[in-house]
Design a protein that fits this description.
579 residues, mainly alpha, MetI-like fold, 2 domains, 26 helices, globular
Length: 579
């Protein structure tokens, strides 16, 4: 038999043999990649599809059309909606960046007294939802707020008005200032201190060194966090809903809310088109964040030794700046949260009535009388606990596939997993609503808390990756190589070596996701139904009904649960959240 004939016979025999089944590693990697794609694409594709339909996607007889885009642009007042959204996001960004940068310098780089305590308190708005902060600001600074009435009793009127774009932006700026603070503090911690020392040697004073050396080195962090805060400003719903709607100020998120959830006959084509517009804008901003993050590496200076920058001496300004900082923390953090907690234990909060005469537990007793309130608390705990575990497990698998495997598509999986950063909560909620209405067999889950678990998990995958990836990148690959040389496959190595070493990061990831799920409301308002309420949706319903006492009592429960989580993470587990 010739050589060619033998080769042909061998090939035919090889082709006839059954193909080997894919290994365990391949199944896990491709399975997780497919699950991630489905979870993230599920809410986005229906929104885009609905924007090109002439009627609701679950109705019969739909036809493709571009008319929704024209109708949206011709909608009365839509141009003003876009303008209000832009102004609100811009003012929010300016305020948050100014406050966050100043706080990072004062609390992190100077010898000001109580700087560490102020830094801890400065972060508290990021732990709470914007909805709860809005209620706190209303309780103390609203038209009938405690401090507003006190000032009006002394002067002719209060010097502030929260029912305006600047007033809304002030609340949003304070709530987002910790983001700028975190990024600036992180950037300052890796900056080479010899540059500042050189400026001091040449005779530059504290202010000149800060202005000419420190702030320019912080500019990449300031620019990146500014884009992030502008993006958040576009997505905020609670503050415009609480303070903008009563004054007739509509932004894009409240436009979606009023034409969707709050409408007796929702215009699905208009809502989906506006959501697609918001998604496109936020995608561009997230792309810009990535570009800025890549460019910032040119500005970071790292010394050859691990050195700690010497704090700037404020000299005679130490105590004046300390007093100013204490006033700011008291006015923007302590008083709004404190007033909300106090309102929960009073029947009325007014400077005209002594607090001792109105103290009561009636708000909590009334809250227990209505099943919706205990149910929303219980549902929030279940969604946060179960969702936190599920999301943490998913994040862990994605992270080790992307960063500790030879998976062919790991780069694409990493990009897909980070894409939910570009999906606003309202868009995710609308998308999951359409997806569960469109796909046969999923309708039964639409009115349960499990759709919330899925939606929250999808929306906050990037948050979990941010907690896990840094520690995974710091782990030496020698651990993996040692296990592989002993014959262990990728999954055995990951399960027996990588994941146990990653336990502290996974604990931090779970706590962060638990807190994030517990305070989330924007995604849930488009998905909840009677029986699947969470605290955020119940707070909104109670607020629209004017139940201020019940709102305060329920918000107090949320604050206490989050406070316990943050305290436990810091004190007992040694986990530092958001910073």
């Amino acid at each position: 038999m010739s050589l060619d004939a033998s080769s042909a016979l061998g090939s035919s025999v090889a082709d006839a043999l059954p193909k080997p089944l894919p290994g365990r590693d391949t199944v896990i990697q491709y399975g997780m990649a497919l699950l991630t794609i489905v979870l993230i694409a599920a809410p986005l594709l229906p929104v885009l599809y609905q924007s090109f339909l002439d009627r609701a996607l679950y109705d019969s007889g739909q036809q493709l059309t571009l008319g929704n885009f024209g109708r949206l642009l011709r909608t009365d007042g839509f141009a003003l909606v876009i303008w209000n959204t832009f102004v609100f996001a811009t003012l929010t960004t300016v305020i948050s960046q100014t406050l966050g940068t100043l706080a990072a310098v004062l609390f992190g780089r100077t010898d000001m007294p109580f700087a560490r305590l102020f830094g801890e308190l400065f972060l508290w708005p990021i732990y709470l939802s914007a909805l709860v902060l809005s209620f706190g600001w209303y309780t103390i600074y609203g038209p009938a707020g405690y401090l507003t009435l006190l000032v009006q009793s002394i002067f002719d009127g209060a010097p502030w008005n929260l029912y305006s774009l600047p007033g809304m932006a002030m609340i949003a700026g304070v709530s987002q200032a910790p983001v700028a603070y975190i990024y600036c503090m992180s950037s300052a911690s890796i900056t080479d201190p010899t540059l500042e020392e050189a400026a001091r040697v040449t005779g530059a004073g504290t202010l000149r060194t800060l202005w000419r050396i420190t702030l320019p080195l912080l500019m990449p962090a300031i620019a990146y966090s500014a884009v992030l805060n502008f993006t958040v400003g576009l997505e905020l719903l609670a503050i415009p809903l609480v303070f903008g709607d009563p004054a007739g100020i509509t932004v894009l998120t409240t436009f979606l809310y009023n034409n969707g959830v709050a409408s007796a006959r929702p215009d699905h084509g208009l809502v989906a088109t506006a959501a697609a517009l918001m998604l496109a804008v936020v995608c561009v901003l997230v792309w810009l964040q990535g570009r800025l993050l890549g460019n910032t590496r040119r500005f970071v200076t790292l010394g050859g030794k691990a050195t700690r920058p010497r704090p700037f001496r404020l000299n005679n300004l130490r105590w004046p700046l300390c007093i100013v900082s204490a006033i700011y923390i008291t006015a923007t953090v302590v008083m709004p949260i404190g007033a909300l907690l106090l309102r929960a234990f009073t029947s009325l909060l007014s400077p005209m009535v002594p607090i001792s005469e109105v103290l009561t537990l009636g708000n909590f007793a009334n809250m227990l009388e209505y099943p919706v309130y205990p149910r929303s608390i219980w549902n929030s705990l279940i969604v946060s606990s179960v969702g936190g575990v599920v999301a943490t497990a998913m994040v862990a698998l994605i992270a080790i596939i992307v960063l500790r495997s030879d998976f062919r598509w790991r780069g694409a999986l990493h990009y897909i997993a980070l894409f939910p950063r570009a999906v606003p909560g309202v868009v995710a909620g609308i998308g999951f609503f359409y997806a569960f209405a469109l796909v046969p067999g999923l309708g039964g889950l639409r009115n349960t808390i499990w759709i919330l678990v899925a939606a929250f998990t999808m929306h906050f995958i990037p948050v979990g990756l941010g907690a896990v990836a840094p520690m995974l990148l710091q782990m030496s690959p020698d651990f993996d190589r040692a296990a592989r040389t002993q014959g262990a496959d990728w999954w055995t190595t990951s399960r027996r070596i990588v994941l146990p070493l990653l336990r502290p990061a996974l604990v931090a990831c779970f706590i962060i996701l638990f807190i994030t799920f517990f305070k989330e409301y924007t995604t849930a308002i488009f998905l909840f139904a009677p029986g699947s309420e969470v605290i955020g949706t119940t707070l909104l319903q109670a607020w629209t009904q004017g139940e201020v006492g019940l709102v305060s009592a329920l918000a107090t429960i949320q604050i206490l649960v989050i406070g316990v989580c943050v305290t436990a993470a810091r004190a007992f587990l040694g986990v530092k959240l958001y910073g």
